[in-house]
Design goal:
single chain; 229 residues; alpha/beta; Rossmann fold; seven-stranded mixed sheet; globular; Methyltransf_25; transferase activity; SAM-dependent_MTases_sf; Methyltransferase domain-containing protein; transferase
Length: 229
Amino acid sequence: MDNEQIMPRVPEREVMDMEGQAEAYASADLEQPNSAFVGRFLELAESGLPSESPFATVIDLGCGPADIPIRLARKCPHWRFLAVDASASMLRFAQSAIEREQLTDRVRLHLADITETHLATQSADAIISNTLLHHLPDPLPFWNEIKRLRGVATLVFVKDLFRPPNEEVVRALVDQHAAGGPKQFQDDFYNSLLAAFTPEEVRQQLDAVGLGDLKVRIVSDRHLEVCSR
């Protein structure tokens, strides 16, 4: 993908902390993308994470309403999840969902800037993040925090949008994938596509912080993934 032919990036709000934004995101139908994320993560984890160890710790950076940790906790009853987000509004929705699913013993919330979590160094068996990267004005501190939390055998799986070549493609993707959602969700999706990074930009970010061993690939008409396997 030639960056010279790609429209410039338009950064958006880093933290989705407006109550209306948080509610729109928490109530949106994310069944398909979140199920796909969980399925791919479990595929990657199959040969690495200790499936029956009660000490397997998965850190989710930018957990939002914690839908993905909840889905994973249902499927993997021996794992523990630490769900991190900088939005207090979003974590209120997450707490309600965790209590509703009776998972408070295995999904713990942590209010913190995801670029400076203050969690223990090399404390994660796995680090996941879904559609967070494009929110960041500067992605390097995020990658540096992953590098700090990562141990020798830690599974890293980050999935995000990538920036289309022009606004015409952006509007087509919004019509295809968000037309049935709330107006706020459609607007956020549009802005997120404009704010996303290209695969080549992500590769450059990883090289800059010493995470060049992570693989970057396009996996859908709007998503890329970064993983350690």
